[in-house]
Design a protein that fits this description.
This protein has a single domain, classed as 2-enoyl-CoA Hydratase, Chain A, domain 1 (Alpha-Beta Complex), CATH 3.90.226. It is 47% helix and 11% strand. The chain contains 16 helices and nine strands. The protein has a six-stranded mixed sheet, sandwiched between helices. A three-stranded parallel sheet has the order 4-6-8. Helix 1 packs parallel to helix 3 and helix 3 runs antiparallel to helix 14.
Length: 356
Amino acid sequence: MSSEPDILFERRGCAGVVTLNRPKALNALTLAMVRALAGQLAVWADDPAVTRVVVRSGSERAFCAGGDVRAMYDLGRAGQVDDALTFWREEYILNTAIKRYPKPYISLIDGIVMGGGAGISIHGSHRVAGDRFLFAMPEGAIGLFPDVGATFFLSRMPGQTGAWCALTGGRLGPEDGAASSLATHRVASARFAALAEELCSERPVDDVLAAFAMSVQDGPVLERRDMIDAAFGHDEVEDILAALDGFAAGQGDAAAFARDSAAMIRANSPTTMRIALNQMRAGRQLDFEGCMRLEYRIVSRIVREHDFYEGVRAMLVDKDKTPRWNPASLEQVSAPDVARYFAALPPDLELPVNPP
């Protein structure tokens, strides 16, 4: 077994370089990794010799596939819910520190980026999508909801594409990632090593990225923007499904896209589908810190309830992929049921006044 840490830090030229180094787990974030990254970012923020931070993966398969939800599941099952919430609280504080970071924070994303991986990349000033970029927020399939600041960044994607991501858990490739603003630049994978080297020089970050960036066009999801906007513009999940069913009655690739989108929603936890849609509607009215506090309210309740444990069991533990949700249908999840997840906590998440 390797004795190397799960996350590596080094000074290279004028850059602080972070390497995610847990390849067998697709770089899934642990609490130790969250704490290490938060601590190192604070040091570099105060170091005048470090003018930018570059975050990359040591694996070609994944940038970061999310948080280590299996560990949170195990803690909850053992009755240690408060310990599980410690992970989410510190993760959300780290997400906020990255959003507010005073220096360029460049994520080189050339693989899977999901859940917690989005939280340590999307909030930075620069996000570079390589050929293997593959983004999704598939939390609904395990009885969770799109968090780590997704309330903020998904709700600000073009039209209703963020709502499509939140409810379906569908995937975006590099073209859709760049065209939708999740990535700020699109660079060929073959040029990533040279790009990383240049980013460690004293050359301005924006100049370096402009020299490497490719032109961007809509990918297969944004090409369905008219359908997505028409369907996901509704304020009830049932109405979204009805609209998708209408599109699915047609022929060709567009109908197949609608059928697949509806099927993904129907497979997910009904409770979290209602929560996710309400998040998307609330997110545009909240600042970033308000979104993080809202997500902590939601996760503090979900982690004490059935669907999270059933979803993780079905998808990650037993892997039978047949979760038994409770409630089992959208009709059984009322507006008051959803509203309680959004209610203030005693106490709400405390975010540092002036984090790095």
